[in-house]
Amino acid sequence: VVSYNNLILGHCRKGDMDVANSLFLEMIEKGLKPNVITYSVLMDGYFKKGDTERGFDVFDQMVGVNIVPTDFTFNTVINGLCKVGRTSEAKEMLKNFVERGFIPICLTYNSIIDGFVKEGAINSALSVYRGMCESGISPNVVTYTSLINGFCKSNNIDLALKMLNEMKSKGLELDVMAYCTLIDGFCKRRDMESARELFSELREVGLSPNIVVYNSMISGFRNLDNMEAALDLHKKMINEGIPCDLQTYTTLIDGLLKDGKLPLASDLYSEMLSKGIVPD
RNA sequence: CGUCUACGAUGCGGGG
Questions:
Q1: CA distance linking residue A102 with residue A100, whole number of Å
Q2: Residue A66, SS3?
Q3: Is strand B less than 7 A from the beta carbon of A75?
Q4: Please, how many CA atoms are within 13 Å of residue A196, restricted to the half-sphere of its CB?
């Protein structure tokens, strides 16, 4: 059964749900009894593909053969619903699951909070955050990053910074992704001064900027038609050995073209191709 | 302590 589970898992991760399902049927034919992990893996595969209905079919099937869902199973369902924009449903189901003995963890709430953020329902996200705190579960850096991202995306940098302070007051440290979220927030509102400050701070606390941080900054400068600064960052990336990706190049090339710098743009295009990056 | 949930950040263009 474990071997089959691993095989099925592999295909689910690749998105080959048809193959995964035939393996599932095959194991039953051989007289093997799928366990809770088999069902959870399959469900997760369907959810990740956006096939929520089939995911629930598997869930029902599992319950039908008297296999008791574990916390993994419940988290899989909640996460799956949140990912496809059915966060309210997920929140309702959570109540239901809790009655069945499920104990939510930070991850559970983070999924729901992020789901609401992605739906643009920052207030719902906030209220889940409050509920989570009230039930004694400590938010982590992921929780705060989602909320900060939500406030940045809804043009509310003040509240984003307020969440940042709340996070710090709990003794949590920013990681690269948290910095990146904030940096991107400032870049989007074309406040490159603040973005730069955070960029420096990131290094001061001993972290290293990654490709996403650079891409955000480059994009920010591009939006201000400051291609000198953008190209400067590109140089830095190369010096630091951070590989540029398709996004880096499209941002730079697009900016250069809008700036009438065709020769530079075409140099970058060649550089990109020479690195084996294929344009989309 | 055999297998499953890890949740957060970035571009351009197009469509609506």
A1: 6
A2: coil
A3: yes
A4: 8
Mean pLDDT of A264-275: 94
Query: Is the CB of A152 less than 7 A from some atom of nucleic acid strand B?
Result: no
Nucleotides of B under 7 A from a protein CB: 2-13
Token pair for residue A127? Answer: 């209220």
Residue nearest to nucleotide B6 (CA to C1'): A107
Cβ proximity of A108 and A115 under 8 Å: no
User: Using one digit for the tens of pLDDT, what is the confidence trace for A77-134?
Assistant: 999 999 999 999 999 999 999 998 899 999 999 999 999 999 999 999 999 999 999 9
- How far CA A211 is from CA of A217, A244, A248, A275, in Å, comes to 10, 7, 8, 16
d(CA A141, CA A130): 15
The number of helix segments (H) and strand segments (E) in chain A equals 16, 0
